[in-house]
C-alpha cells in the first residue's frame, strides 16, 4: 500500500472529512516520525510496532560491477519492530 492508497481508504471510511485534510494529517504524522528518528528518538505505536534507528559502522565494501574496494561511511538506518498485537493478527491468532 502506498501513501495515496492509505489516504483513499481513510477517506472512504470517514466521509465527513475532506480528502485533502486526511492527506495533510497522514503527511504530518509521517513527518513527525521521520523528525523523531532523525533526533535519535524511538517512536512507538502501541499494538502496531516501534520505529528506531541503528548505527552501521564504517566499512570497506565492494563495487559489484568492478570488484574495487569502496569506503562506506558510517550511517544510520531505520529499524521497525512489530508489536505483539500486529504479530498475532498477521498469524491469525487474534
Rg over CA atoms, rounded to whole Å, is 19 Å
Distance between the termini: 22 Å
> Which structural class should the secondary elements be placed in?
alpha+beta
Helix count equals: 3
CATH superfamily of the largest domain: IHF-like DNA-binding proteins
> Could you describe the largest sheet, including whether it forms a barrel?
3 strands, antiparallel
Q: Strand order within the widest sheet?
A: 1-2-5
CATH topology of the largest domain: HU Protein, Chain A
Catalogue the unreliable spans.
none
Q: What is the CATH architecture term of the largest domain?
A: Irregular
Oligomer: single chain
Q: H/E series, N to C?
A: HHEEEEEH
Strand residues, percent: 25-35%
GO molecular function: DNA binding; structural constituent of chromatin
Family: Belongs to the bacterial histone-like protein family.
Subunit structure: Heterodimer of an alpha and a beta chain.
GO cellular component, one term: cytosol
Amino acid at each position: 500500500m502506498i501513501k495515496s492508497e492509505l489516504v483513499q481508504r481513510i477517506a472512504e471510511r470517514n466521509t465527513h472529512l475532506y480528502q485533502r485534510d486526511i492527506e495533510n494529517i497522514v503527511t504530518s504524522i509521517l513527518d513527525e516520525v521521520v523528525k523523531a528518528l532523525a533526533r535519535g528518538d524511538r517512536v512507538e505505536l502501541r499494538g502496531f510496532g516501534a520505529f528506531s534507528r541503528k548505527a552501521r559502522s564504517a566499512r570497506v565494501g565492494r563495487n559489484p560491477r568492478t570488484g574495487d574496494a569502496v569506503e562506506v561511511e558510517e550511517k544510520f538506518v531505520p529499524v521497525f519492530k512489530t508489536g505483539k498485537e500486529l504479530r498475532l493478527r498477521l498469524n491469525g491468532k487474534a
